[in-house]
């Protein structure tokens, strides 16, 4: 389905080790391993030794991409890494990151999580001025814009790029003797700073810092550019037009539960959402189960608030990637069967409350209800810790065109009938806000259609 188009959702890592004798590749490897849930189609590392950049990229998981002596060959005290989920038809090692380009005074490598909404216009402009593109990803647009502006100095080149590009992004860049982190002016995509002795780390999530043995220092602020070199960390802001609108879906689904984002514990927020859902939409039942992994914390919260026992009802095959980010419908539907198996001892002859983080198309949710009923559940009551997903995301989160979003086309009762559930309830927008401590600095456009910036105009059924 050509219109069922997916957006990039990736993980990035950057490491700066103060001593030139220290290599950073193993730290990046551990960090990317921790970020593997953010993308499973390709992985790459670029290391910088005294301005010379060497990289290795492969299709597949981190463990597949860096076999044998590859890590030992990547020598450099500065480096960046990337795990990628690609858009349909645009995978392959050509589009894997980090991207490295040569410019008049050396090399620059860049890795990116997010999505630009004006990528096409910028690409056309650059092609008209003679730039030849090697890839089809918007990362190459950004690295070209930076390279063209380097005659004005690195910081000004990056600041000029930030003023030109439009969308959601977190970037890690290495150039010369520096590691640079950039977060978009809305803070839509996450990026945090870690430290271990004299070494600095940048990562999409704090769980990657934990994997490298670093301490979380803080998040990169919206619109902030951080430059790390032998003098430590220097911050440059874009304060005249920043407006924090972090992506709420990171907390709901994408982030690992052991991460901390914008000073919010992901696990605690999910647990709280389950508690709120139990109060908003109670039901008589015998057991509460969660859809692994992002539904588990919420299921425990629902069970504690409702007094209904929590049980392990679905066993996850840990070697299967997320069904939500499979490139096509057939793979997604097959993936549910392979990925989740019911624990009949928990489910048989029981009234089951199943907690999931979201319903996007409804295909996975329908299959889950079928699995539970086939395993002997007397009743299946579906509870969702996000409101109906009714609008597409243009900022790097993996949601399809609006006409494929079941929440944009059907009422809750119609969705319940399609799923075959005995009841269905979503958390309210107010309840979702309460789950993140009442903080309102989140983009919730996939639920309410209030985008923080202009987005491509599409017809209602697209």
Protein traits:
462 residues, alpha+beta, Glutamine Phosphoribosylpyrophosphate, subunit 1, domain 1, Rossmann fold, 7-stranded antiparallel β-sheet, 23 strands
Question: Topology, pairings included?
Answer:
Blueprint: E1 11-16, H1 25-34, E2 42-49, E3 52-59, H2 62-65, H3 70-73, E4 78-84, E5 99-103, E6 106-116, H4 119-128, H5 138-149, H6 154-164, E7 167-175, E8 178-183, E9 192-196, E10 199-203, H7 206-211, E11 215-219, E12 225-229, E13 232-236, E14 246-247, H8 248-254, E15 260-261, E16 264-265, H9 266-280, E17 287-290, H10 296-306, E18 314-316, H11 329-339, E19 340-342, H12 344-347, E20 351-356, H13 363-374, E21 379-384, H14 406-409, H15 412-419, E22 423-426, H16 429-435, E23 442-443, H17 445-448
Parallel strand pairs: 14-23, 17-20, 20-21, 21-22
Antiparallel strand pairs: 1-4, 1-10, 2-3, 2-4, 5-6, 6-7, 7-8, 8-12, 9-10, 9-11, 12-13, 15-16, 18-19
Helix pairs in contact: 4-5, 5-6, 9-10, 9-16, 11-13
């Amino acid at each position: 389905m050509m219109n069922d188009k997916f957006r990039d959702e990736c993980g990035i890592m950057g490491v700066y080790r103060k001593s030139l004798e220290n290599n950073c590749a193993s730290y990046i490897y551990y960090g990317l391993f921790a970020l593997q849930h953010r993308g499973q189609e390709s992985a790459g590392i670029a290391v910088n030794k005294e301005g010379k950049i060497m990289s290795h990229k492969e299709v597949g998981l981190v463990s597949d991409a860096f076999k044998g002596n590859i890590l030992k060959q990547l020598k450099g005290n500065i480096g960046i890494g990337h795990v990628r989920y690609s858009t349909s038809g645009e995978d392959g090692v050509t589009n894997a990151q980090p991207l490295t380009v040569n410019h008049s005074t050396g090399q620059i490598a860049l890795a990116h999580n997010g999505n630009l909404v004006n990528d096409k216009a910028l690409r056309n402009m650059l092609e008209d001025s003679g730039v030849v593109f090697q890839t089809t990803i918007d990362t190459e647009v950004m690295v070209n814009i930076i390279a063209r502006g380097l005659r004005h100095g690195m910081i000004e080149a990056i600041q000029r790029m930030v003023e030109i590009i439009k969308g959601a992004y977190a970037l890690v860049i290495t150039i010369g003797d520096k590691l640079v982190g950039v977060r978009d002016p809305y803070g839509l995509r996450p990026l945090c700073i870690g430290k271990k002795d004299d070494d600095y780390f940048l990562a999409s999530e704090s769980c990657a810092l934990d994997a490298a043995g670093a301490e979380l220092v803080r998040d990169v602020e919206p619109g902030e550019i951080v430059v790390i070199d032998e003098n430590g960390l220097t911050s440059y802001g874009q304060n005249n037009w920043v407006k924090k609108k972090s992506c709420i879906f990171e907390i709901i689904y994408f982030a690992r539960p052991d991460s901390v984002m914008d000073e919010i514990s992901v696990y605690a927020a999910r647990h709280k959402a389950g508690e709120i859902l139990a109060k908003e939409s109670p039901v008589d039942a015998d057991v509460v189960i969660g859809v692994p992994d992002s539904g588990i914390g919420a299921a425990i919260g629902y069970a504690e608030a409702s007094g209904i026992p929590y049980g392990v009802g679905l066993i996850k095959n840990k070697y299967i990637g997320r069904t939500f980010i499979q490139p096509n419908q057939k793979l997604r539907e097959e993936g549910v069967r392979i990925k989740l198996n019911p624990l009949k001892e928990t489910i048989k002859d029981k009234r089951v409350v199943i907690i999931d983080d979201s319903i996007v198309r409804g295909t996975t949710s329908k299959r889950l209800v079928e699995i539970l009923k086939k395993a002997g559940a007397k009743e299946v009551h579906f509870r969702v810790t996000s409101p109906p997903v009714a609008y597409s995301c243009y900022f790097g989160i993996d949601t399809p065109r609006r006409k494929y979003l079941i929440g944009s086309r059907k009422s809750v009762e119609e969705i319940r009938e399609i799923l075959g559930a005995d009841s269905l309830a979503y958390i309210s927008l107010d309840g979702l806000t309460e789950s993140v401590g009442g903080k309102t600095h989140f983009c919730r456009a996939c639920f309410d259609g209030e985008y923080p910036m202009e987005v491509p105009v599409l017809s209602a059924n697209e």
